[in-house]
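cron nightly-structures :: item 1 of 1
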Amino acid sequence: MIEAFQVALTSVWMDSGFVGFQMGQGIMIVVGLVLLYLAFAKGFEPLLLSPIAFGCVLANIPANEAMITDPGVMKLILAGIHQEIFPPLIFLGVGAMTDFGPLIANPATLRLGAAAQFGVFIALYGAMLLGFNVKEAASIGIIGGADGPTAIYLATKLAPHLLGAIAVAAYSYMSLVPLIQPPIMKLFTTQKERECVMEQLRPVTKFEKLVFPIVATLFICFLLPPITPLMGMLMLGNLFRESGVTDRLSDTSQNALINMVTIFLATGTGLTMDAKSFLNLQTILIICLGLVAFAGGTAAGCLVGKIMYYTSGGKVNPLIGSAGVSAVPMAARVSQIVGQKANPSNFLLMHAMGPNVSGVIGTAVAAGTMLAMLK
């Protein structure tokens, strides 16, 4: 009887994770705990970073292969990422929360959203010089758009083995927008430019707000069919918001649905961060290239903003160019904060929302262009 009990205990011990525990798994669990600390204690994108961090912890529990590959919730979550289900659903919610009014009122800000994509192509060429193939380089470059769902969508199609590193880099830089952008914005603008007060935007009619998502969907999706799932869901969510007769659908899209999908998408991203695929030189290079891409996009937006400042006779504050990255609405808020520090009478938030939402479209278009060229 005692011997049988000892055999059972030995069997339990040999099957436990303590026996197969490796140093790399320990390092990744610590990484997950650090990310949890940043999410909860420092407030760095807690809604995104906390499920990513805990998914990272789960992915590095020894002998976890069955947990992720056998039928069950973990396999279902990963399937939602690899089958490209979650990113478009996130875009549905984003569309329902987005007001395209500032962009419609000042279409010239589309240039700023386009300029901010410059960082994407800087990182793309940098990644190719460092030895990544063109599909991997394209997936890394899109980090510069600071758009997590688009980065995940492109990575699952072109470089699924890099998904974890790309997603973590994209979401990390989204959360660090208030720290990374202000020094770059001040470096590329003068005090006089930052003090520029912009005129109030014109009112936008309901008709314009309804026509815009329809026309944008038709034009962009005809031009770049591979990006139809993202762009279509983004504009459908916006139609829910603006129609005035689909309040329940709009409320569900921008609250319950996006919250649930965010949990699954972020947790699934964390589940891809196992030690074997994450602890290598490639991951370090991806994170560094992502920072270059993000900084380059911010700088390019400010530089094009400077051009618009001078061509408009000093009527455009170049700070709004930094909002051309897709981190909605955080990048627009940073433009407002930096501008108000330079001039307390400055109110740039609504002006910055134009390039901010155009950045969402611009990043999706950049991803669609890469898919059209590389698939």
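cron nightly-structures :: done
The mean pLDDT is 88.
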